[in-house]
Amino acid sequence: MSLDQLIKDCKQKKPKAQETLYRRYGSVLYSISLKYSRNKAEAEDNLQDAFITILEKVGQYKKQGSFEGWLKRIVINTALQRYRKRDVFEIVNPGDIAAVEIEIDNDDVSLDFLLQIVQNLPDRYRLVFNLYALDGFSHREIANMLSISEGTSKSNLARARMILKEKIEKKININNIQSSMS
Amino acid sequence: MKDKKNIDRLFQEKFKDFEVHPDEKVWQNILERKEEKKLRIIPLWIKLSGAAALLLLLFTISNNLFLKPNNNQNPIVETTSEKAIELNNNNTNFEEETKPRTASTTDQTTPLNKATSIKDNTNNQNLESTVAATPIKERKAGSRAENSNINQQAVSNTNNNTNTIAEHKAINDKTEGQDIAPIITPPSETSINSTEVSEKNTKKEISEKEEKPSILEAIVENTEEKSQLKKEEAPKKWGVTPMVAPVYYNSFSGSGIDPLFDDNEKHGKLNLSYGVQISYAISPKLTIRSGINKVDLNYITNDIAFNPAINAKSIRSINYKDGLAGIEINDAQAAIRSEALLSTENQEVNETTVSIASVNQKLGYLEIPIEMQYALLDKKLGIQFIGGISTLFLDANSISLIEGDMVTELGSSNSLNSTSLSTNLGFGFDYKITKTITFDLEPIFKYQLNAYNKSVQDFKPYYLGVYTGLRLNF
Questions:
Q1: Going by fewer Cβ within 10 Å, which terminus of chain B is more open, N or C?
Q2: Could you give the angle at which helices B24-66 and A15-36 cross, rounded to 10 degrees?
Q3: CB distance B313–A38 less than 8 Å?
């Protein structure tokens, strides 16, 4: 089924087309949910919420930009609605607002570990890190989406990077200790 | 030598081809929610319309069963009223009869004349048949029925016709001496002997005139008696009751804070509800009532572990006050297990401290109940069965952490619906202190239907109150 036909049938709320849409894009959207959520269960909830919204709003899709991009945006927005109200006890250290580098080989940490530490971030930090580092939004766009200032967005990102760096370094150290003992 | 890599870049590369298939249950849940969404609006309206239909049905039944005229009640009043009407009618008959009788005493052909006048009375076309069809035995006035003749019947059937008398005279004048064929056949038992009838009528006229004052007096007496009886037996249908109740809040299952605490020990606390109730007795047994109450509820969840942390995980259903999301709360048992696991894995001292506390969830509602009350026993001591629904408007909502004497308000719950319903069932016991004042005691169980949204959908709260008050009846 072509994309245009699929979209047209979804607008007419045909159940078969709706299922096809899910089968075609479900994995991509779920992967985004996993990065934005705190754990697998919440990621599943987020995907369900987002997909219900997609099925309701597919009639509003006007072929401006890619359809996949439109779907992803809905998933991200759903996650933002869930988590953005969380206030975070925040220590803002101006010195932290800088690019963070880490000494690492690609094999030092697994994808699962990186996903886990992203999910373990406080909600706001996780949202900002995903939006900026993984999905390419600017601080201005993030500020609008989360109803925060650009400065807050930058400091949240800095804190997120610091926490991730600490956890990765800790993990690398543990791995090194374990490998030297074996 | 390890590469120095920008941390963003590290994540971008690792997540570049990241794709995970969701479990099949996710799609099944989506399908279920699609169906739920279609039906979501309907159940609430079904409940409301069901309650309204039940009230209407009860009202209709009570109207049919309890508000029909009861022949056993007020026999004196009804009997006397019948008698009064009868006497009244007959009194009118006397008045009507005297005039034509006076006119006819000198007329030998009185009956025929009167029959003619009936015929000529254009306002009573049906009189012929009416008279013919009205047997004497239907008359309620005993002695008069025995002595009635066509004259009496004709006149009694023209009670409302003011032309009759004048026409009588005119026609009598015209038809005097003429033979007029009778238009109607008189009943056999009233074969007319004109002189006998006129004599009888004359005698009767005198005796009936003498009875008039006493009949009038009887009518007046009966009317007074009727109004007196009505005053004495007029039920006090309205009631106003200021009420106060200790209420106990709890749930059949789940946690109102987070599914994480489903298995934690919880206990409700005793609180107070106060308000005013207004009732209206639709029938002696059935009363409808409403009012407004302020209800404060709270319950405690035990075995909560808490620790301050910079990157604390927050509970989804709590809107934290400023700065307090840094206090992480968790199920104590789960926290202890996780600590043990971490210290084994990392082989380092865990610097965080896990303290055990309780979480207190407090809520307040403005409650507007609509209930029906059915009297099982209605004497000095009364017993009623009570059922209905309440609409609850949330007006207080807080979640606090309690450790010993220290209470920290974390924030409020975002999983509470601002408007919800409860179904109410209970019994009422009342004691009539005087005719206007009654003491009420009503234990009522109220099960909340949609107090919480889906994030804590396993939580099934209820509250039990013992409502007491003094009712003013009027």
A1: N
A2: 110
A3: yes
